[in-house]
Amino acid sequence: MSAPAVELRGVSVHFGRTVALRELDLTVGRGEALALLGPSGSGKSTALKAVAGFVRPHTGRVLLSGEDVTDLPPHRRGLGVVVQNYALFPHMRVADNVAFGLRARRMPRRQVEERVSEVLSMVGMADYRRRFPRELSGGQQQRVAIARALAIRPPVLLLDEPLSALDAALREEMLAELLRLRGELPDTALVYVTHDQGEALALADRIAVMRDARLVEVGPTDQLYHRPRTEFTASFLGAANLLPVEVVAAPGDGPATVRLAGAEFRAEPTGGPVAAGARAALGVRPHRVEVRTDGGMPARLLAVQWRGTGFRLDLELDGGTPLRAEVSSVDGLPPVGARVGVSIPDGCPLVTTGAGG
Ligand SMILES: Nc1ncnc2c1ncn2[C@@H]1O[C@H](COP(=O)(O)OP(=O)(O)OP(=O)(O)O)[C@@H](O)[C@H]1O
């Protein structure tokens, strides 16, 4: 088996007294797209910078295709890097921006021309070669930045919040472009830093969830979404309700039975084994909560918000547990303040409580 494209082994990064990254172990396979997802300040950019060589790890090693590059400067690592504010050279035309890394590598002129045309076409910017960055929109500048990063045909492309400076419509468009680009570059590994779960879900094969300078959880995208192990992942990825439940029966491998507000459900212990009698958190996505006029668990409807594609309902179960639901229609539901019935499906993940990890 070939070595992973990227490997971080116990990488810690300190800035003075701030620990920005704590003993991160992470691998990215060849051609794989990994999203680093987490709230602001969780250490995502620092992890990416450690791969790029922009920060030096306090401890640990960084390997690219099996080679230890911890002591190499960024330009010797052969990576493509795109950051949120484009960072194009303002005094250079588009074609020269894209050619920069190729010329630095002393590639023959004719080949540089061909490569520049190839990558500019790839990002739909072939007609803009003669423009200066200031003559381009934000989205166009970001396309050029991606073309520049791809020009050297890097085995790994590092993207740090590449869409965050763009407006919502353009973000959607660029996300679709990035997906298409992935199809054209099946061998290029992608490390994608974002705090936007939608981008991570759309682009990544695997997601690494970060919090407070630590890796909370890493796994295939659909697994992290459907079977999160920790409360933090469940709430950050998909905004799950975290309902305090009591474990009634836990037969080992299979589903557990849990109790909440007098009702019992089957739940999947994704966070590890649970014992009967223990308290745990059930992760329930708002769109899986059913709300009706009667039957189910008794609750009170506290608020209704229209969200365009549907409605968000704030509820409170008897006993005081808050619960959020998303429904497509409120036809037939009583007014705010009234009592309703709530159903929660079997099979929701039973996650570990606490800081997560
Ligand atoms: N150059 C620096 N000097 C001092 N502290 C830094 C520096 N860069 C980052 N930090 C600190 O390290 C921690 C992690 O920062 P990092 O930029 O990796 O977070 P992030 O998850 O990428 O956040 P964001 O989404 O806001 O960019 C933060 O507490 C930040 O303040």
From TrEMBL:
Gene Ontology MF: a single term: ATP binding
Keyword terms of this UniProt record: ATP-binding, Nucleotide-binding, Transport
PROSITE patterns: ABC_TRANSPORTER_1, ABC_TRANSPORTER_2
Pfam families from the UniProt entry: ABC_tran, TOBE_2
SMART domains per the UniProt record, alphabetical: AAA
Keyword Cell cycle: no
InterPro entries referenced in this protein's UniProt entry, alphabetically: AAA+_ATPase (IPR003593), ABC_SmlMolc_Importer (IPR050093), ABC_transporter-like_ATP-bd (IPR003439), ABC_transporter-like_CS (IPR017871), Mo/tungstate-bd_C_term_dom (IPR008995), P-loop_NTPase (IPR027417), Transp-assoc_OB_typ2 (IPR013611)
Residues covered by the ABC transporter domain: 6-237
Protein name, entry field: 2-aminoethylphosphonate transport system ATP-binding protein
Lineage: Bacteria, Bacillati, Actinomycetota, Actinomycetes, Pseudonocardiales
